[in-house]
Amino acid sequence: MNSTRVLFPLPWAGGQHALALGRTLANGMQLAAVRRAKVPLVHLRLRVASPARGTEETMARLLLARTMGHEGVTWRGSADLARAGGTVHVSCDADGYLVRGQVLREGLGCLLTVVSDLVTSPVRIEDSLAAEARALAEEVRRLRAAALPTARHTLMAHLYGSHPYASTLPSTEDDPSTVTSSALTDQHRRLGPTGGVLVLVGDLEPTVALDLAEAMLGSWSGTCAPPTSRPHVPVGRGAVTFVHRRDSVQSCIVGGGAAPARGDPNYAAFELASLVLGGYFASRIVLNLREEKGISYSPSTDVHHAVDASWFEVVADVAPGATVLALHEIRAELKGLAMRPPGEAELRGARRYAEGSYMRVAATQAALTRALEWILSAGLDPSWPQEHLAKLGRVTSDALRDQASRLLNPDQLHFVVVGDRARIQTPLSLAEGAGSKPPLG
Amino acid sequence: MTGQHFQLPGRSHRAALGAEGPRAASRRGIERASLPNGLRVVMNVDRSVGLVSVAVCYGVGSRAEPRGRTGLAHLFEHLMFQGSGSIGKMGHVHEIEGAGGLLNAAARPDYTNYWQTVPPSALARVLFLEADRMKGPLLGPEPLANQVDVVKEEIRVNVRNRPYGSFPWFSVPQVLFDTFPNAHNTYGDEADLDGVTVADAQRFFDRHYRPANAVVTITGDFDPGSALRIVHRYFGAIPGRSEYPKPPPDRHEPPMDCDRQASLGDPRAPAPAVALAWRLSVEPTDVRRYLAFVLLARILAGDHRSRLHQRLIDQLQVTRVAGEVGFDERDPFDVLGPVALTLHGYVPLAGQVERVVAAMEEEVERLAEDGLNQRELQRAQASLEAELYGRLDCLEQRAVLMGFYELETGRPQWAVELPALPALVTANEVKDAAGLLQRSCRARLDLIPGVRA
Question: How far apart are CA A220 and CA A29, in angstroms?
Fold first, then answer.
């Protein structure tokens, strides 16, 4: 089959310099290849859709990603890949697996061989499983000992309940060495081409690269059913969950709630609202917590997107003695966005910053690979950034305020504080409006 | 596609390297200029991306800090965002971000960089803003106290509140070096930060932040002729203060005559970790010789196929192994000597620490005595080459590295030549590098879990 489309020009991607081609394979995979030959490298991202069936699968999925990553550097073909400076890395989330690779241009074939072998051939686990399980157990202990991953996991558990998105970290009590090889084989069997996206960007000939990729992945037929959507809209009530972390020299505050998806007509206004709040250096929360009060280095807001949901997140690591103050100020800034929406100058600044950030997604081979992968994985057209830029230009202060009052009201978000109870001093229950839950431990 | 002014030394041109005339820089699409006040300018046009980066590099870093004022170079970098003659606090940030740009800065051991990437239409304004703060930032007790607090939170979020935070590099300088310029990291001590006065900051600025100690680098989509005119217009009037150049900090280290050891507590780490660190006698700007050590670190512990990965992970259940060169975990190239080579690992089984240390030393010895095979050399060369090309793809990283090499060597083209150089290093050069380590004293750092620092 040869349904090659010209994605070119990608006006947002420095169009005149980037020849971009796309192709959809009979098995449902989308391929895209872009020539960007400033440096003699090729970047690859392969997204494989394989939704988790429940929160209890997290450990097996993490172990499969690790095992595949290990095999990517030890299997046949990987020696040639290494000699071409190639690397392969595999990660996972509740929606599926992401394979990332990079290689000097002459290694494109090696990279595609190794990557397609990883996803299409059954996992070979015997020799490396024990070592990977040990390494994973150590990684889980390390992440559980770190403040932000703990806070984020607690927030997601609250927002997403029984949905697989609730589980970002296995518990330290879960032992990865109890994951059986048949459980791993089962997880691997659930990888399939449906909904998959492969993006190649760099010093390559797009037609040649697409033909190579099709030759290796075109006959891949997954055995599992295509993923089905399980939309979930999280609801918060302004409460604070406190997690005690002994000797924590900072308190990690994370708040979050529902956000519109990228395809939602309100997304442009919401994105600007998040930016004005904490999306860049000169944003409100950064100016307040950092430049005025000196209690946090890099507080920020962000919008995250996954297949079944999109969510807003505000993060601040603050001095322990300033925990209650910071929580109060974050809530005040969230509320204040609806009461004091940006004027023309602030709105223009946020809009220009957003425009600049969409231009920068095409500024390097690596960034363009990442951007095309999420655009195609989200089911959006490659021209989406261009259309979105036009929408950003039309967002009014009223539309932004409307999004802020509907979705960024702190009473509709949930907050998590990870810190040392003894160092925080003031009980969190004194934080304005915070219906504190009893400490978790 | 490659912009017409931007050329990389392609893989087929390697043989030509080293045989260069005086016009070497311009052959690489790099233009150099200087102003009467001593400011140097480097320009590298690349029209493949519709953006332009400006990096201003000052030849001062943590090694030039006065005694009792560790961390001042980094703190001062923060103060450069607190306003200057024509703009208020954060005004620089407001303008760059409001123009659709991105900006940041970093204080390094030997220099400090400030960069921004913006749409081409904002280039003149960026140059105005950089010139404005080169004339002098607004220094006062309030912004100083505010940024001391911010820097302390930065150290906590990046180091002190993390399990294994920045291990071992946060402590390597203090343990491995003896003289003040080298024996502290770029963050410095919190007590020293508390002691910084406005007068300290002013003196630091007066001494180091001057046109003759700075390089302005512009990369990306711009016209060099008109950019240079704008540079002259905004920077030309900044007084040159002719007493420059001042003597650089004395980086000399007396020789180390025996091995040393230090322990650090980490209340958050779930298991022990251990590191070995060697001083390197080579200057990183002696690029060819230095690369032998960068490759050595990779061959020992760079990736899954490296010697220590195979041995420690497979046999001793170590979960993380790394071999790195430099002054910290960041860029190994944008520093001067002395620097270090470290090998480190997380060791989940406390009883295995001694065996891990022994294995690290044995592998250095084996390389020093038996050398290496061509395959492992090729792997290390190719992976380093790919990494170096990756950073050249990024306008601001290229601008910063060119600025560093202009400052320290007068040869900004090192930045674009770098990726082709690992392939020139021979197996014998790497073997000799291992021999130097084997004959040198080393420091050992033990991270003790569950214990307060």
Answer: 9
Q: How far is B115 from chain A (nearest CA, A)?
A: 14
Contact between chains at B317 and A134 (C-beta distance less than 8 A): yes
DSSP for B20-76 reads --TTHHHHTTEEEEE-TTS-EEEEEE-TTSS-EEEEEEES--GGGPPTT-TTHHHHH
Chain B residues whose CB is inside 8 A of the A141 CB are: 270-271
How distant is the alpha carbon of residue A173 from its chain centre?
26
Opening angle at CA A414, ends A411 and A419, nearest 5: 125
Q: CA–CA separation, B296 vs B278, rounded Å?
A: 12
What is the tens place of the pLDDT at every residue in B327-358?
Answer: 999 999 999 999 999 999 999 887 899 999 99
Burial letters for B397-434: b for 16+ Cβ neighbours within 10 Å, e otherwise?
bbbbbbbbbbbbeebbbbbbbbbbbbbebebebbbebb
Q: What is the dihedral of CA A207, A210, A216, A217, to 10 degrees?
A: -150
Residue A16 pLDDT more than 90?
no
Per the CB < 8 Å rule, is A131 touching B119? no
Is the confidence at residue B3, as pLDDT, over 90?
no
- Altogether, the residues listed in chain A come to a count of 441
Tell me the pLDDT tens digit for each residue of A269-318.
999 999 999 999 999 999 999 999 999 999 999 999 999 999 999 999 99
Contact A235, A69 (CB under 8 A): no
| CB-side neighbour CA atoms (13 Å) of B193 | 26
Chain B residues whose CB is inside 8 A of the A282 CB are 90, 93-94, 97-98
User: From the CA of A41, how many Å to the nearest CA of chain B?
Assistant: 7
C-alpha torsion angle, residues B175, B181, B184, B190 (rounded to 10):
150
This model of the complex carries an ipTM of 0.94
In this predicted model, what pLDDT tens digit does every residue of A216-253 receive, in sequence order? 999 998 766 666 778 888 888 999 999 999 999 999 99
Instruction: Report pLDDT digits (tens) over B207-233.
Output: 999 999 999 999 999 999 999 999 999
Phi, psi torsion values for B394, nearest 5 degrees:
-95, 120
Q: How many CB atoms lie within 10 A of CB A292?
A: 12
In 3D, which of B356, B376, B365, B272 has the Cα closest to residue B308? B356
pLDDT above 50: residue A439 = no
When scoring A138, A288, A289, A369 by the number of chain B Cβ atoms within 10 A, the one with the most, hence best to mutate, is A138
Which residues fall within 8 angstroms of residue B449, CB to CB, at 6 or more apart? B266, B269, B270, B271, B272
Q: Which residue has the tokens 């906590």?
A: B156
Residue from B290, B257, B246, B221 nearest B430 by CA: B290
Q: Identify all chain B residues contacting A70, using CB atoms and an 8 Å cutoff.
A: 304
**B364, two tokens:** 């250095």
Strand A310-318 to B52-58 pairing:
unpaired
